[in-house]
Design a protein that fits this description.
about 150 residues, alpha+beta, Nuclear Transport Factor 2, Chain: A, 3 helices
């Protein structure tokens, strides 16, 4: 691995962390900035949100629901086992597992399937598919795919 590849991988990891930290804190503008301007957020069972405005609109309801659901809402996304495959100097495929804890404890888990694109000096999410693989019976945010 050369320095250019190492830097690309670290920039991708930084975007992954920024997405989750921003989302957990309800900072939608920071989260939306993790996507390319024409980025797509695809959540299983829903119409894909295309473009930053649509992604912002889709996630605004998630933040509002989170605040309404608890007197002291807590959301913590834990991302692990990230695999990055670079395809040239401006494209990458990325797979990660996620596990979400809320104030009720373990909430839901699954994986992100991402396509990243280099945009200027940053690596941003061009397409994210969120696959929820399971959820606790008292999940506040996720839904168990077997129940839907």
């Amino acid at each position: 691995m050369d320095a250019v590849e190492a830097i690309a991988r670290e920039q991708i990891r930084e975007t992954l962390a920024s997405y989750n930290h921003s989302g957990d804190r309800g900072r939608l503008e920071e989260l939306v900035a993790c996507f390319t301007p024409d980025g797509v957020l695809e959540i299983a069972g829903e119409e894909p949100a295309r473009g930053r405005d649509a992604i912002r609109q889709r996630l605004t309801s998630v933040v509002a629901d989170t605040v309404k659901a608890a007197a002291a809402p807590l959301v913590r996304h834990h991302v692990s086992s990230t695999r990055i495959e670079l395809a040239g100097d401006a494209q990458a495929r990325v797979w990660s597992y996620f596990f979400v804890i809320t104030e009720v404890g373990p909430d839901h888990w699954g994986r992100y399937v991402d396509h990243f694109r280099r945009t200027g000096n940053a690596w941003l999410i061009a397409h994210r598919r969120v696959v929820t693989e399971g959820a606790s019976p008292n999940a506040r945010m996720g839904s168990d795919p077997a129940r839907t």
